[in-house]
Write a structure and sequence with these properties.
Blueprint lengths: L2 H8 L19 E5 L2 E9 L5 E6 L5 E2 L6 E7 L4 E7 L3 E2 L4 E11 L7 E3 L6 E9 L8 E5 L5 E3 L4 E9 L1 E10 L7 E12 L1 E2 L6 E2 L7 E8 L10 E7 L5 E5 L5 E4 L10 E10 L2 E9 L6 E4 L16 E3 L10 E13 L2 E10 H4 L4 E3 L18 E11 L13 E12 L2
Parallel strand pairs: 2-9, 8-27, 10-16, 10-17, 18-24
Antiparallel strand pairs: 1-2, 2-5, 3-4, 3-6, 6-8, 7-8, 10-13, 11-12, 11-14, 14-15, 18-21, 19-20, 19-22, 22-23, 23-30, 25-28, 26-27, 26-29, 29-30
Length: about 425
């Protein structure tokens, strides 16, 4: 199964915070009015796609150049809809190598910019230092985390560390935890703007005190659909202004440990996530807030039932869900996955915004096999795993990571069919 589907359907891959190769965007889709139309710039982070293509309105897809990690699209006057397709370099999945193809169908009405992300190994360096959490009762280890979840640990509550981190400027979090199999966060210190490679905290020991201890806060998840797993799976993360994500809780549905006020800073925010499932159906929500740290309440959406598309090499997905009506950003998404070999997985995901759909309730997965670098179809008799989802919230479904003060919910169904 593709990593993004595992995250959405089965739970939250807590330390990675990844939506898949193109299930993310975090800056924005740059739109600029020009004489005779609108220029659209799609920026890629992580790694550069191996192939890209664009479609204007209902015209055919055409290969697109990737220049400086960007694809430039020109939407002429009288046309509002466009699509951008891209293939990310293969990356390690769950025991296989994944080749992921993404298609985003949008409109210039979808507004300010998005940046989509392909998986890619960043340049890393070694961060060294020492940390001491002996003043924190129950502490057994100190985790060290930097940008993109990279880091390491001390191995005890007092000692030296040598952690692999993304090269450049990192907010480095030292996290004192207990000895549980899924450790509880007892205290947090955040060292801002640290240079990697190099010595953290100027080579001085990161010493925890009582003022760094976390404080338990209540977390309430409402509207778990009847028949769905209750309590739902939850995760609470603290995200620094420089992009370091600290997992505070991933196994407790009723409370979470809040970061001490002394360790917070303007621009940081909390991310609260919850999901639940019933067989092949799932629901979930992510809610971020710059005013978090106290009691938190989030609500799951009403569930959706869908039996899946008719078996085809490039199927058509049907969406009949009104639970997100009136929300600022709504999108429909269809995905297929198959294993060409035991060691490889191919995925194709199409996401269409409500502005692109203009009331349409189907997504026909485009056949891009004629374009160099895009995935071919599965051979007859292949088992195809499909996922269908509807997203609704304050930001587009492809936004990754979610910014502060945003909400994005989803409903999802999944299943299998045999390639005709």
């Amino acid at each position: 199964m593709h990593a993004s589907s595992v995250r959405i359907f089965l739970g939250i891959l807590l330390s990675l915070t990844v939506a898949g190769c193109g299930g993310g965007g975090g800056g924005g889709l740059s739109t600029h009015l020009t004489a005779g139309g609108t220029a659209v710039v799609v920026t890629f982070t992580g790694s550069t796609p191996t192939a890209a293509a664009t479609q204007i309105g209902t015209s055919a897809f055409a290969a697109a150049a990737i220049q400086g990690g960007k694809v430039n699209i020109f939407v002429p006057t009288g046309t509002t809809k466009y699509s951008v397709a891209y293939v990310c370099p293969p990356y390690p999945g769950l025991g296989n190598m994944v080749t992921a193809e993404y298609v985003i169908q949008a409109s210039i009405q979808d507004g300010t910019a998005y940046t989509v992300s392909c998986f890619g190994a960043p340049t890393t360096g070694t961060a060294t230092g020492t940390a001491n959490a002996t003043a924190i009762a129950g502490s057994a280890n100190i985790l060290i985390r930097g940008n993109m979840g990279y880091g390491g640990s001390v191995g005890s509550n007092n000692g030296a560390f040598s952690a692999t981190m993304v090269t450049g400027t990192n907010d480095v979090a030292a996290i004192a935890v207990d000895s549980n199999a899924q450790p509880n966060v007892l205290a947090v210190q955040i060292l801002r703007n640290q240079t990697v490679p190099g010595a953290i905290n100027g080579g001085n020991t990161i010493t925890f005190g009582a003022g760094d201890a976390t404080t338990p806060q209540t977390l309430t998840v409402n509207n778990v659909p009847a028949g769905f797993v209750s309590p739902p799976a939850v995760a609470v993360q603290y995200v620094t202004a420089n992009g370091t994500t600290i997992l505070l809780d991933g196994n407790n549905a009723t409370q979470y440990p809040a970061v001490a006020a002394a360790d917070t800073q303007t621009g940081d925010y909390y991310s609260y996530e919850a999901n639940s499932a019933n067989g092949n159906s799932a629901v979930g929500v992510t809610q971020t807030t710059s005013t978090g740290g106290g009691a938190a309440t989030i609500s799951l959406p009403a569930s959706w039932s869908y039996t899946g598309p008719t078996a085809a090499a490039f199927p058509t997905f049907t969406f009949t869900y009104s639970g997100f009506s009136g929300l600022a950003a709504v999108a429909q998404q269809g995905e297929i996955e198959w294993a060409p070999t035991p060691a490889t997985l191919t995925t194709i995901t199409v996401t269409a915004t409500a502005n692109y759909q203009s009331g349409a309730t189907t997504i026909a997965m485009p056949n891009l096999t004629a374009l160099t670098g895009f995935s071919g179809s599965a051979t007859s008799g292949t088992n195809i795993f499909w996922v269908a989802a509807v997203y609704g919230g304050t930001v587009p479904a492809y936004t990754f990571p979610l910014p502060a003060n945003a909400t994005l919910s989803f409903v999802q169904n999944r299943g299998n069919y045999t390639e005709p």
